[in-house]
Structure formats: structure tokens, C-alpha cells
Amino acid sequence: MKKISTLFAFLMVTAFAIAQDKYAAENEGWLVDIDQAYALSQKTGKPIMANFTGSDWCGWCKRLTANVFSQPEFKKWADKNVILLELDFPRRKQIPNEIRQQNASLQQAFKVRGYPTVWVFNLEKNTESEGYSIEALGQTGYTATVQEFTSGVDQMIKRSAKGG
To answer: Is 73 inside any structural domain?
Structure first.
């Protein structure tokens, strides 16, 4: 009997490791790991746009995805302008513990109290610690159209480029 329970534990750990590798954002083209987003942001010079969402329960989040994030015009705009990061807080689906902890830390750092909340920011590696320094460019929430959403984010990015 011990061999079976040991084998079961091994299979569960293996299944969890595989599930972690396969965990992906609800929205296609979005990253889920802040370190990957940082690396891509540094490489491209684009700011990170983080969507704090409750993908499986938040009605306004689902509307934002349907009306904006899933639209071809948004995807084309995003490819040119930002690095997409999804920070999900689901109620019915499991996400890897490391991602859940990362999302909670970022939720605290940005003082997110409701969903959807979208922050646009730049990151710098903090040389004194293992963390990052955040340069917030702006925040938004639900917006009904791609044009409204992208023009708002464009204004945040332009203000930053002008130094204020």
C-alpha cells in the first residue's frame, strides 16, 4: 500500500509541475509572469500593461475582454505599444501557487481594490533587493470600445514620454 501512495504523491507532484508549465493567460497573447514581462519590456522599450481580472467570475472583466481585448484592432495596437500581463484572481479555477503569490503582491503594490483594473507601468530592477521599482504611467478600468481604451492608454504613454 505504501508504494501506491508514494506513487500517487509522485504523480500528483508531476501533474502539478506539468500544469504549472502549461498555465497560460485567459486571453491569448498575454503573459502571466512578471519576470517574462520585464524581460520583454526591457528588450522592446515598451511599457507593461497589467490587467487585474477575475476571469471566471467578474462580469465587467468578461465584458472588457469581449469588447476590447479579444478584438483584432486591440491586438494590433498592443503588439506595437505595450507588453501584456494578465494578473488573474479566479474563483473556480486553480492557478499555480507562484503565480497566485505574484498576483497578490502586485495587487498590494498597486492598491487594486476592484476588477477590472488595468495599470500601465515601467519596471526597473532594484539593485539592493531581488525586486523591482515601479514607474506607474496610469490606470484605467472598464472601457466599452477599443478606440476609447487604446486612446486612454496612448495618452498615459505620451505623458510619460514627455516627462510628466
So the answer is: yes
> Residue 60: what pLDDT?
98
Inside any domain, residue 12: no
Reply yes or no on whether the pLDDT at 126 is more than 80. no
CB 87 within 8 A of CB 53: yes
The rounded radius of gyration (Å) of the Cα atoms in the chain is 18
Mean pLDDT of 50-69: 97
Burial class (CB in 10 A: 0-12, 13-18, 19+), 102: middle
Domain boundaries, position 146: 25-161
Contact 38, 132 (CB under 8 A): yes
Q: Which CATH number fits the domain that encloses residue 74?
A: 3.40.30.10
The whole-number average pLDDT for the span 117-134 is: 86
- On whether residue 139 sits in a domain, the answer given is yes
Do 156 and 119 form a contact (C-beta atoms < 8 A)?
no
Supply the pLDDT for residue 10.
Answer: 40
pTM of the model: 0.83
User: Does the residue 98 lie in any domain?
Assistant: yes
Residue 54's CB is within 10 A of a number of other CB atoms, namely 17
Handedness of CA 43, 96, 139, 78 (dihedral sign): positive
Domain count, the chain: 1
